[in-house]
Amino acid sequence: MRNTLSDFKYIKIVFTILAVLIVALSVYYSNKLADDMAEEERQRMDLWAEATRRLVSDVEGTDLSFILKVIEGNNSIPVLVADENGDVLVYRNIDVPETNKEKFFQDAIVEFKAVHEPIVVAIDNQTHHYLYYDDSLLLRKLAYYPYVQVGLVSAFFCLLLFFFASAKKSEQNRVWVGLSKETAHQLGTPISSLMAWVELIKETGMEQSYLPEMEKDVGRLRVIAERFSKVGSVPEKESVLLNELLENSLNYMQKRTSSKIHIMSRYINCGEVFVLLNPPLFQWVIENLCKNAIDAISDSGEIVFEVREEGKLVIIDVADTGKGIPKSKFKTVFQPGYTTKMRGWGLGLSLVKRIVEEYHNGKIYVSPKIPNKACFWHALFMSFLY
User: Are 362 and 247 part of one and the same domain?
Assistant: First the structure.
């Protein structure tokens, strides 16, 4: 499981680096191409300005057919030539409205001037015209091209991560189901044997003072096997009295925990609380939370389960006086494979989250510390109150 998580993290890092490199190279190349094209358009406008000057100045020996070919050859760059007073003399590749032409040209001059410095066309020593031009449609499209590339690469990268995440989750689900079914199967034989031994002890009249606790443990084994057998299938939920179910689970854990650790429950402004849930799976959640809290308490301490109602929600706050969880690990603790124990599998809290959120449509997360408490779990269960 840990190797799978490590491999997935490595794959994410590799693909992130590749995506960043692709985007960076793409943006660099697109910007360079746009700059080169902008420079080429500037040179074309310089040539267009010179052709206009020669045409207006009627320079001796000028090849008019070539000049006209240069001027008419511009079919993409919006351009206009104005005199010193701002009156437009000639324009090309500009859609001019039928009305308010003068205002339109003045606005166009301001707009073009903001994009490129105007080119001075010296007709003679005293007369100067000014050529204003804008980027061609192709160049404007090219300017947006890097953003399109970034969007496409980002979308592809997100889809790729979603695919890997789905594949990883699917693999984890298969592992969960397979492990659970096999565990339930393996527990079946010793449970049957233990039940037979209990009946034999009863029939032979042997010392029976310890039988009640033995029967409880055998019953607990049956419950555990039943829990594992339910993993991977839709659990059957029923309306149960949460108070009774919670107290039974806490009493069971208290009897099997050090006397220095006290497990308590509190009910805040609520009486009997009925909740729609699967009892064996809910007890599994409580036991896992208790075990996690017990492992966090070094010697002595307390574990408190606080129950309250908010509308149609039943909220269970679980706090302990253990060593606590770093804020950076608030989400990590629920990931399969995460554990602080030398021989732990890191499956307990992952299973808790799965039962609460997937099977009961609830929510569980780690809340910030509260006074005198090290770890504070916040569990929400959807409930139907009667």
Answer: yes
Strands (E), the chain: 79-82, 88-92, 119-122, 128-133, 238-241, 261-268, 274-277, 301-310, 313-320, 363-367, 375-382
Of the residues 139, 170, 197, the one at which a domain ends: 139
**CB-CB contact of 227 with 281 (8 Å):** yes
Sheet holding 363-367, edge to edge: 261-268, 301-310, 313-320, 375-382, 363-367
Q: Are residues 114 and 245 in the same domain?
A: no
Question: Quick check: is 265 in a domain?
Answer: yes
Amino acid at 340: T
Parallel, antiparallel, or unpaired: how do β-strands 119-122 and 128-133 relate? antiparallel
Per-residue model confidence as pLDDT tens digits over 269-304: 888 888 888 888 898 889 888 988 888 887 888 999
What is the rounded distance in angstroms from the CA atom of residue 80 to the CA atom of residue 43? 16
Of 11, 17, 35, nearest to 153 by C-alpha is 17
Which pLDDT tens digit goes with each residue over 160-199?
777 777 776 666 666 666 666 656 655 665 666 677 767 7
How is residue 55 written in tokens? 């045409």
Alpha-carbon gap, residue 339 to 325, rounded angstroms: 11
Range of the domain at 256: 234-382
Does some domain include residue 148? no
The residues, ordered by sequence, that sit 6+ positions from 46 with a Cβ below 8 Å of its Cβ are 119
**100, 124, 139 — which closes off a domain?**
139
pTM (predicted TM-score): 0.48
DSSP, collapsed to helix, strand or coil, labels residue 74 as coil
What Cα–Cα distance (Å) separates residue 362 from each residue in 284, 305, 375? 15, 17, 20
- Alpha carbons 242 and 381: distance in angstroms, whole number: 11
CATH of the domain at 50: 3.30.450
Same domain, yes or no: 131 and 264: no
